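Batch job 17 of 40 flagged for manual review because the log was empty.
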Amino acid sequence: MTKERESFFRKELVTELREVARRMNETKNAEKKIYYFSAAYGITSRTYRYSFSRDVLLADFVLNASYQALMQRLAMLKSGDTTVVLDDKIFNALHKGLLMLADAFEEEKPKTQEALEQILTASFVSSGPGNYLREKGAATI
């Protein structure tokens, strides 16, 4: 693969991650925020298919798993289980993580781990065990 082609896909990835973060930040609706968040793993999935790299593959895995966790919590909320809520702190942490991830990919340095940890932790605290650890002060976002 040419360096030019790889650079093109990286730029597209960065642009889309920032767009996802912007759209999530602009809406107040939790379901819509999750909807926009799903576009993050959509772009990582497309990117590694055209320009494979391990860091994009890892990002795709974390973003997809995080989306699934958020969707599970949303389904539980819709069923009436309100023991764990999807609050602004979770979405703010996801927003921050997406911007950190975009920056890491733009700089083309292996700094993606901190961003992915931010995103994964934010989605983890939407689970029962994660929320319990958050309430205890062990899991912070």
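Reviewer: the log was empty due to a logging misconfiguration, but the result itself is present. The chain has a mean pLDDT of 95. Unflagging and moving on to job 18.
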